[in-house]
Fold this protein.
Amino acid sequence: MLIIMISFVGCWDQKIYEDSGFALQIGYESSSAGKILMSFTVPVVDPQAKEPVELVYSNANLLREFREDAKKTSSKLIEGGKIQQILISDSLAYKGINNLLELIEREPTDPSTPYVVIVEGSPKTMVEIAKNFIDKPPRPAFYIHKLLENNIKSSYIPETRVFQFSNAYFSPGIDPIAPMIKLQFDKGKGIEVTGSALFAGDKMVGKIDTKQTPLLLAMMGKMEKSTFISKMVVETNSENEKSGCAVGLNAVKRKISVNIIDNIPVVDIYLNFKVNISEFQWNKIYDESIQNSIEDILSSEMKQNCEKVLKYTQEVGSDPIGIGDIVRAKHNSYWEKVDWNNTYKNVIFNIKVNVNISNHGSIR
Amino acid sequence: MNDTRQDITSVQLMAFTISGAIGVGILLLPSLLAEEVGHDGWISSLVGGFICLIVTVMIMLLLRRYINKSIFQINILLYGKIFGYILNLFFIVYLIFITGITLRIFEEVTNIIILKLTPALVTTVLIILPTIYATSKGLKVVCRFSVLLFIAYFILILSLLLAIHNLRFTYIMPIGKAGFIPIIKSMKVTIYSYLGFELATLIYPNVKDKEKALKYMVISIIFTTIFFTIVVSISTMLFGEIKLSMLVFPIYNIEQSITVPVLERLDTVFILFWFPTMGGTIRSYFFSLYYSISMLFNIKRKKLLLAIVTIIEIIISRIPENFEAIYRYSTYSGILGVIIISIIIITFFISLFKKKVLA
């Protein structure tokens, strides 16, 4: 009996690989009649199939409810162990999204590492159109995943996985942020990464673009390498439209301190960028004095941009850096007295940016 | 039974007691502590470890006073035949209970994470089979396996390092916010996780190099304390106290949050190396129970005893009605463990007034 029992281990939980359809991404968007329009994309591996992706969608109130619905049309048993990203429409994101991610965290077989992505528009429509892109990877889920990964490495968008979103949501004094994408046709058809969505709690309250996101990530201490395009460092005597200066942000060191002065939090943020000139002018010798003036202009420009981003976060009431969390940790008695949602708007930020140009490529 | 099959070294004693503590205890500890003391769980873990260290030293000093005697023999020597026998029976009742609850926790982990539909009885039998086999081969085999588990502990710590870039140090601040009394009250949670060192009182006579036993038992507690504190700290710094208190197996959630090239998910690897560790915990308790019953009642029919103990443990493991009830029963185990340890401490102090037995 024992041998029989051992031989049949796993039979109850048997899942035949060929019968399983691994949902690669989930889409959530607002729908009518008090439900959410949910969609899965599942890869089709049958060589005779004409399309490489199966898109299944339905209106439901729970993801499980939708999965059970999906079983009624899909040829595969939908499994969630390979979900790459969760696409949520911006209109739904304004209403709160943490409970949409609950199943991913509750289900032990689903990893909590899918990206949380806000879509400007409808995720379902995006996938329907993306399925027909002939110059992109045939499966939209992999295309979007690679797009997100590459832009995360360039710090144009934050890396926000499900567990990171819920960690920030549940922790007082810090708000999550998430990448934003949209369909676009005016730069060659494709899906464009547009920046970051700012949240207050789990409700989307604002957005910043891909120029502002690297600076915000630098202030959060999460910036990897990126490129900064300066419009203030201008090329002189140019009759064609080329102007500005591009610098590669290779590394950044952040120092942040929060003090309470006259009952108001004062935040000092010091950013020290190590950069290299990657595109500039080429009509005169570049020397140390030019380098110093470029560094000064860049420092000033980046400081102004940082201040604009922080002012915007205060206006919309989102605290992605986690100033509230730092106040809670280091000035707990003050934290207990105030309502941080109101106090954050009055925080005084002192930003200091220092730029060091390490090299300027192969020409001077 | 052949004597050499029960002979172990001090290092193996250390591994045996560590495997009795780490394995199952670490699974629930971070979230239970987050519920009790918020982000100060690591302080509770350190304090619990310190208390266990002092108790372990007392236990070892007691055992050193009665060379080649286990706690059962010491109890009879100090308390007399009847009362000593009652205390020994109580120890066995404790072992029966804690082994069953630990077995149930392992079965529930398997049920929740991997085998949802497989009947609990089948999972329980499969979990206990290697334990029965190792136990039948003797203490030396059980301890050698426990030594191998150090590889799993090392792999876990390495994998936790991969989560470092997601940690926020501010999540464990302000330090000591929970307050002194709640941290002390949280000992009821911590103690269950640290239980395992009391098993040394049963197998001490089998240690061949007894002069090193105290040193290695101290190392075992320090190792367990550091290990638990690291895991609790990293869990708190990764998830924050509010989310951490809502997680069932935080260490599994940590592994789920790590992505690596090629494998993509580390939680499947975690299952691979952590399940043997949990099996090690069951093995330590199961062997201790089997060995103590065979010693106390002088059982000759070992195989029959093994079968009876297995059936009893499977029955005990089915006592908690559902997963939520397990939290309550593990608290009961902790309370029983504290009582056992308190009795051993009292025994130690009584022994100070009695003559040493050197041979």
